[in-house]
Amino acid sequence: MKRYAAKYLYTLETEQPVVNGFVELDDDGTVLRSGVCDPASEDVFLDGALCPGFVNAHCHSELSYMKGLFRKGTGMAGFIDQINELRDTQSPAQKEAALREAFDCLWEQGVVAMADISNCADSFELKSRHPMYTRSFLEVFGTEPGDCEAVMEGVRKLQQKALSYGLDAAPTPHACYTMSPELVSAASAEGLRSGFLSYHSEESDEEEQMIRSGSGPMWENRKAAGMSVPPVTGRSSLEYFLDRLKAAVPVPVQGNVLLVHECCLDKDGVKAAKEVLAHPYIAICPLSNIFIHNTLPPIPLMRESGIPICVGTDSLSSNDSLCIVNELHCIQNAFPEVSLGELLVWACRNGASFLGKEAVFGSLEPGKRPGLVYISAIGGDGKLTAESKSRRL
Fold this sequence. Notes:
Strand order of the largest sheet: 3-2-1-4-13-14
Shape: globular
């Protein structure tokens, strides 16, 4: 048996911490019990916070080899241009080394589970033997309506390869601006067979301009490249996605559907999402949003909506690190009304719920094996500081 004690213990059965709390774990990491302790009687008492392992709700681990290559502040159109320019510019050995380093760093910092985007099979072997749980979302692209069936056949083959490694994996649509309407519906229907979707939604004003009015840098880029563009609807890109779902499956749409980014979410979008989706979730990746277009999602509206919020890091092409604590510190600085306990619910419990792994991860309840994380340098007010770091215990 192992026993850990700290100034703050976040079991996440509620958002409130146990002050001067302890947790006991079996040798295999199963939580036995927790409670209040006398700091003076503990062999080791940590001056920080203990919490369950993190769930990274949105990552592109395959892009880890792109760390440090991208210019910041280019907007989505500029970022996509850089992706197209820099993708596959390193050797398979370099990609593998960067991927392995990213996974080990995530694990050491306390991530126990991840919703990871895959466009190819590069990560499958590593995922199959790594202790971190991953669900792989096999992202689908294709702007030309006539290519829909060929694209779907390709992603089905990729899914079979992932399944051969024993992974949880299924197709998922990428975003409205990289897919024909037919492909959005087809990929969504296929992915929902697994019970899960992850979809880039309302990441930027440029995406909204494209769908609402057929204008802006992303629209112009697609037209200049001779690519088909999505229909102009006069409504938000989120509502467009929901319309494509309604064309593919019965409403309310069953399964866990993760709306990633939602930087342009408004009340109409919230209302539509809750009407169409039986189990909606939102994943926020604030440091990536700042990296690309210097904006943040509307956290107050998201909290008010009641839709569970999860936390992701996006990729090392659009972030300087894959550190969950850095994401939480960013949110806390911008929205100081959000307590550390609530932030940890987003980063642990809600992510586990989205992945359907709440029976194992997400909270320090007896019988679970959620991992245990120590967060250092907690301020006197109980909040994260710029020096706060996490490590697995």
